[in-house]
Write a sequence for this structure.
């Protein structure tokens, strides 16, 4: 196996096969070459688009022109593209192996978009049995059982780490939680739409459940979602979430600051995940007002803060 890189493109060769990997600033992808992305689909192109420094709070020093929170939405408009928002190295390995098989062995006319970050953090081992969920779009990452109450936190990309911090803070207050890593909202949505269409056309047949519906039908507790992208990314699956989904995301223009300050500004840090969690739990009757008021007071969040979408 050999490779070479030219103008941001890496071609991996094996025998006479050349597999393109195009690695670029995430912000410069679908926003600036959207017509070419559609053309690639029309031409039945295969390969990997790798959006580096993905997310609106990861590339903290370069502001509006470089911080990307919407490429996953733009990519989702292309039927044949497989869009993955990755958090860990083991996810990337499984997704690339799947792509090689589907595109070059099974000869599917698809291509892949992977988000890649630039933030250094510890890479855990892959949870047992997670491979299928990584590829299908969602898998159980970490469970903390406390007091018989559970909040489901759907997390993507580097903000999985904020979800882990929030999980610990919730646990300190006697609230249990389950963190689900969501790698592909587009696929979860498309398979759920397909299941709904099947039921619409065959109303007398036993209803077919999508992967998402099967995964969550016996899950306890309400749901929140957090990612370094616009809320629309996770909102794609809201209609199939039991009890509804409260999404946190980075709507608004990018700006230059530290990651910590950016995540506070865009309301996607651990404090906001905790607030979203206790709000969902309280609204749906899983915790009483006394516990809600206690945790809310500890968060010390100012309600009159600036709205990131309006600035």
């Amino acid at each position: 196996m050999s490779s070479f890189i030219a103008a941001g493109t890496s071609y991996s060769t094996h025998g006479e096969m050349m597999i393109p990997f195009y690695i670029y600033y995430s912000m410069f992808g679908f926003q600036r070459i959207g017509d070419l992305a559609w053309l690639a689909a029309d031409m039945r192109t295969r390969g990997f688009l790798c959006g580096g420094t993905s997310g609106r709070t990861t590339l903290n020093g370069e502001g509006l022109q470089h911080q990307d929170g919407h490429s996953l939405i733009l990519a989702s408009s292309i039927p044949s593209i497989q869009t993955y928002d990755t958090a860990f190295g083991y996810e990337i390995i499984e997704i690339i192996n799947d792509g090689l098989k589907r595109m070059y062995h099974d000869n599917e006319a698809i291509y892949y978009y992977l988000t890649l970050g630039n933030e250094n953090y510890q890479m855990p081992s892959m949870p047992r049995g997670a491979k299928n969920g990584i590829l299908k779009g969602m898998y159980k990452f970490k469970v903390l059982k406390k007091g018989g109450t559970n909040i489901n936190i759907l997390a993507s990309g580097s903000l999985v780490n904020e979800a882990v911090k929030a999980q610990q803070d919730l646990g300190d207050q006697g609230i249990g939680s389950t963190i689900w890593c969501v790698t592909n909202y587009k696929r979860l949505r498309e398979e759920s739409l397909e299941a709904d269409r099947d039921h619409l056309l065959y109303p007398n047949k036993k209803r077919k459940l999508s992967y998402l519906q099967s995964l969550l039908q016996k899950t306890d507790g309400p749901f929140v979602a957090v990612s370094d992208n616009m809320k629309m990314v996770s909102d794609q699956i809201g209609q199939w979430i039991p009890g509804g989904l409260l999404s946190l995301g980075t709507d608004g223009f990018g700006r230059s600051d530290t990651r910590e300050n950016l995540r506070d500004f865009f309301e996607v840090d651990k404090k906001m995940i905790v607030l979203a969690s206790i709000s969902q739990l309280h609204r749906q009757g899983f915790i009483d007002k006394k516990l809600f008021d206690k945790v809310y007071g500890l968060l010390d969040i100012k309600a009159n803060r600036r709205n990131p979408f309006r600035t």
Summary: The radius of gyration is 20 Å. Residues 230 and 238 are 14 Å apart (CA to CA). Residues 89-105 form the longest helix (17 residues). Confidence is low (pLDDT under 50) at residues 1-9.
